[in-house]
Amino acid sequence: MRVVSWNIHWGCGKDSRIRIHAIIDVLRKLNPDIICLQEVAANHPELEGNASANQFRQLAGAFGGYQPVLEPTSEIYQNNMPRQFGNLLLSKYRITQVHRHSLPWPPDPANPGMPRGLIEAVVEAPGGKLRVLTTHLEYYSQVQRMAQVRHIKYLHWEACERARLYQPNSGLDAPFQLGFRPGSAIYCGDFNFTPDSAEHAEMLATDDSIALPLVDAWAHTHPDTARAPTAGLHGFKWPDRPDCYDYFFVTEDLVPRLNEVTVQSETAASDHQPIVIDLT
């Protein structure tokens, strides 16, 4: 099982030109079973490079064998047309449930920020059902970012507790027949924090609840290797220096299935690099 997570920067390269076909080419070469993308845009001509096309539609159409889950976390109307920006998940595996979670956006007078969200898809993977979740957290406001991390941890506890308490019940009315939603999960995306941050520590913090502990998949598979940067390569204006902002966090029960986590550093199609996780 292979999952790719990538903040595609609406396909805008360092020459300020948008090339969605370059994003598609990289993804096809990686040949993932599940694709998790952030910073997908539609009808945003004011963004660098003129992101006026509907990239959600372009990317979903390019991967016709995958089931798409769209989550525009920002939807602003201009001339009665929605300008959308957010996340996209594409899965080869059958999806049995989808949950779109809005993340906290507490007012921060120093940084307005933007709305953020989390896609959750329950997939029938070869090793059994699991949840795959992708997000893009706030960059500028540490107050908002920490609130978002804590809400993700709450949602994780909620899912694990519901997996313990509730089983599928065909006797319920149709909207209540959601089927099994497991605690086992892969969380990925652009978290906009560094490995030495308080937010990273919060993601991994454990308590005495039923929630399955989360593990930083890179740290587990590369215990003696320096963290590979996921942004700051190829001469982009941001960030000031290469660092890691993109992660895979997996539940502890999936650790025995972890094979490898890699950062694809070659492509310059975005200001972030694709990250890849392989599980048995």
- State the end-to-end distance: 6 Å
Radius of gyration: 18 Å
Could you say which structural class the secondary elements and strand pairing correspond to?
Answer: alpha+beta
Shape: globular
Oligomer: single chain
**Strand residues, percent:** 25-35%
The succession of helices and strands, N to C, reads EHEEHEEEEEHEHEHEEE
Helix content: 10-25%
The main β sheet shows up as: 7 strands, mixed
Low-confidence segments: none
Mean pLDDT: 96
Tell me the number of helical segments per DSSP (H or I, 4 or more residues long).
5
Instruction: Give the strand tally.
Output: 13
Short summary:
This is Endonuclease/exonuclease/phosphatase family protein. The protein has 280 residues and is an alpha+beta fold.
Explained architecture:
Strands 1, 2, 3, 4, 5, 12 and 13 form a seven-stranded mixed beta sheet that branches. Helices cover 20% and strands 34% of the residues. Helix 3 links the parallel strand 8 and strand 9. The chain has five helices and 13 strands. The chain has 280 residues and is of the alpha+beta class. The protein is globular and about 55 Å long. The longest helix has 24 residues. Keywords: Endonuclease, Hydrolase, Nuclease.
Detail the topology: elements first, then pairings.
Layout (H helix, E strand, L loop, with lengths): L1 E6 L12 H11 L3 E11 L6 E4 H8 L4 E12 L2 E11 L3 E8 L14 E9 L2 E9 L5 H24 L19 E6 L7 H7 L9 E3 H5 L24 E6 L6 E6 L11 E5 L1
Helix pairs in contact: 3-4
Pfam family, one: Exo_endo_phos
Protein name: Endonuclease/exonuclease/phosphatase family protein
Keywords: Endonuclease, Hydrolase, Nuclease
